[in-house]
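User: I'm writing a tutorial on reading structure tokens. Could you give me a worked example: one chain, its sequence, then its tokens, then a sentence or two explaining what the tokens reveal?
Assistant: Sure. Here is the example chain.
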Amino acid sequence: MDRAQLAGIRNSRIGFIFQSYHLLPRTTAINNVMAPLLYCRNPKPGPDARRRRSQEVLEAVGLGERLNHLPQQLSGGQQQRVAIARALAMNPLLILADEPTGNLDTQSGQEIMDLLHKLHGEGRTIVMVTHDLAIAAHTGRTIRLVDGRLESITHNGSISLPFQARMVIHEPR
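And here are its predicted structure tokens:
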């Protein structure tokens, strides 16, 4: 695939949730969520369809009354939910979440985890990176890396230890 094709896959099939939200600061919640829809090519939704979809996902994350608020007018948990709504705008199959609760208080973090559980229950695959063991405990499978090496895999609470991964390198003769 060329760069444009890869970008199309990232836009249409993968939703990204960043630890630091990466919201456009002078742009309302609904316009932040609309951003990925502007890059959609097949088929390209019109302005009304983009607005409807953005409002729909903001309502799904509990921000239906905050559509026209700027990021600085929202709490950290609300900003993270805008970031999640943006990740959901294209209805992705895969969600990549980098420390989705890392900048949040305990209650907001739990609300985000509840939302991720709901999304997973709807059939989305979620790959999450976290340093928080309590957050990792929410997952069906946890892959623990230490210094870039695979240390263990936990399946639904059952840890496989010690885990020994072997790499076989075949060199040409």
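What the tokens reveal: Residues 26 and 167 are 49 Å apart (CA to CA). The beta strands are 14-17, 94-98, 125-129, 141-146, 149-155, 158-160.
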